[in-house]
Amino acid sequence: MEKRNKTYVEDLDRGIYDIKNDFKYNFKSEAGLTPDIIREISHKKDEPEWMTEFRLKSLENFNNIETPTWGPDLSDLDIGEIIHYVQPEVDEQRSWDDVPEDIKQTFERLGIPQAERNSLAGVGAQYDSEVVYHSMKEELIQQGVIYMDIETALKEHEDIVREYFMTLIPNNDHKYAALHGAVWSGGSFVYVPAGVDVDVPLQS
Predict the structure, then answer these.
(1) 36: domain range?
(2) What's the structural domain count of the chain?
(3) Residue 146 pairs with which residues in a beta bridge?
(4) What is the pLDDT of residues 20-33, one digit of tens each?
(5) For residue 203, which of 122, 140, 132, 147 has the smallest C-alpha distance?
(6) Does the residue 127 lie in any domain?
């Protein structure tokens, strides 16, 4: 078997990124990856049946596909010890002022200043497994641009999400694409109508 190198980032200042807050959550899944855990995550998100089945098929693919021989050595990764879904005790906000102070401080420490947020056409911010903040400039909304967390899009624009979700990198592409298909949570959904130009960045 080909020997692969483990990845080490020795010059990274981990003090910037290893942040631990006084953690509060509404729900936390059990550690591990089983069909029951996948169903529970999907149920908590109130997803349509087809997405639950997509997750379960992704889990099946994950269990059946061999670990890639390219990339870093992940042989020490124990999926059974990982908690895949944590729902923070905060609802998604449209105003940055309404985001809880400890979460705002987390993003400030990561170097996302207010001036940068103000210059963007839209901003999404995720904390643990859920999006806690999403906003977009009104002029883009008027042009039909959709920029929201993907879980809201799954409810409000289900047909578009179902048509395109994980089509560029499908859930059988490799083992970790399958893992993503099984336990994805949060993230942003962007739709730009034909003929509309968005010349200011959207950032998540």
Answers:
(1) 14-203
(2) 1
(3) 191
(4) 555 566 667 788 99
(5) 122
(6) yes
The whole-number pLDDT of residue 161 equals 94
Write the single-letter amino acid at 82: I
Kindly report each contact of residues 73-76 with a partner whose C-beta sits within 8 Å and lies 24 or more positions away, as own/partner.
73/4, 73/5, 73/6, 73/7
What value, to the nearest 5°, has the Cα angle with vertex 45 and ends 121 and 39?
140
Give mean pLDDT, residues 90-114: 58
Q: Is residue 82 part of a domain?
A: yes
Highest mean pLDDT among 7-21, 46-60, 101-115: 46-60
Residue 102: its pLDDT value, please? 61
pLDDT of residue 123: 53
Q: Nearest to residue 101, comparing CAs of 14, 21, 17? A: 21
Specify if 2 maps to a domain: no
Question: DSSP letter at 94?
Answer: S
Relative to beta strand 188-191, strand 146-149 is: antiparallel
In a domain, 6, yes or no: no
Instruction: Give the residue carrying structure tokens 């056409």.
Output: 121
Burial (CB < 10 A; 0-12, 13-18, 19+), residue 193, is exposed
Q: Identify the residue whose tokens are 């399958």.
A: 178
Q: How far is CA 128 from CA 19, 46, 53, 139, in A?
A: 12, 18, 24, 30
